[in-house]
TrEMBL record:
InterPro entries: Intradiol_dOase_C (IPR000627), Intradiol_dOase_core (IPR015889), Intradiol_RC_Dioxygenase (IPR050770). The keyword Oxidoreductase applies. PROSITE patterns: INTRADIOL_DIOXYGENAS. SUPFAM superfamilies: Aromatic compound dioxygenase (SSF49482). This is Protocatechuate 3,4-dioxygenase subunit beta. The keyword Oxidoreductase applies. Residues 69-97 form the Intradiol ring-cleavage dioxygenases domain. It comes from Daeguia caeni. It comes from the Bacteria.
């Protein structure tokens, strides 16, 4: 089925879309104007082994329900997009971002910094461990206020850095989805559904027991510090691996492509 109903450009339901759409006519540039490079080359910024585990960046476990978010990234023909950089960023379990633009005042989690990255493997597969983000109220450019459903921001590099695509992932069964202005700016039901990750019970991990609790590490100073490099011994402490799994496949282009901001 061909979907030809795109959300309007510069839609006021996205607070940032006005910043991401062209406001002037395109300018033609000869091919020779560009530098050409085959495929993405991420060797210089290769993600570290813990970059895909957002629950392992602090000195202790972050608050919230631990989740696995995983899936495949394919092109319009269903071919895997291999070895490409996938980045995510999100609110913590209370709906707060570590971001100077976040003026919500919602509590920050000293053990959760809200960003991660990984490379897809040879089959275009990616996998993150994180916590389920909380919803938060947003004000839109037309002055309207509405709650955003829980979501995770995704950035995917395609065949080159210039083909970076950004989208948002929602959670199956979230009652707030029908009130979320951003996803509902997509008029096509299939387009909205493509942004909703499905609960993947087969890949969910269920362990009743974890390591003994340790003392909280919050020092109470209120000062935010950069995430520590996880070369310390705590990074290797055993942790309860339990996590709900959500499957989120992304198709970069084509009539069944995932919508992007
Ligand atoms: Fe957000």
């Amino acid at each position: 089925m061909i979907r030809n109903v795109n959300p309007p450009l510069a839609d006021s339901s996205s607070a940032v879309s006005l910043l991401r759409v062209p406001v002037k006519p395109p300018v033609h540039l000869d091919r020779g104007w560009f530098h050409w490079l085959e495929g993405p080359v991420f060797d210089q910024i290769r993600p570290g082994p813990l970059d895909a585990d957002l629950t392992a960046h602090g000195n202790g476990e972050p608050i919230g329900t631990k989740i696995i978010v995983h899936g495949r990234i394919t092109d319009s023909d269903g071919n895997p997009v291999r070895h490409t950089l996938v980045e995510i960023w999100q609110a913590n379990a209370a709906g707060g971002y570590i971001d100077s633009l976040d003026q919500s005042g919602f509590p920050l989690d000293p053990n959760f910094f809200g960003a991660g990255r990984c490379l897809t493997d040879h089959n275009g597969y990616y996998r993150f461990i994180t916590i389920r983000p909380g919803p938060y109220p947003a004000m839109f450019r037309d002055g309207g206020r509405a709650w955003r459903a829980s979501h995770i921001h995704f950035s995917i590099f395609g065949s080159s850095a210039s083909s970076r695509l950004i989208t948002q992932m929602f959670f199956e069964g979230d009652a707030l989805i029908k009130h979320d202005r951003l996803i509902n700016s997509i008029t096509c039901p299939l387009g909205r559904d493509a942004l909703i990750a499905k609960l993947d019970i087969d890949n969910t991990i269920s362990e009743s027991f974890g390591p003994p609790r340790t003392r909280p590490t919050l020092d109470g100073s209120g000062v935010l510090v950069d995430p520590p490099a996880r070369s310390d011994a705590n990074a290797l402490l055993p942790r309860n691996p339990s996590a709900l799994a959500y499957r989120f496949d992304i198709r970069l282009r084509g009539p069944r492509g995932t919508y992007f901001e």
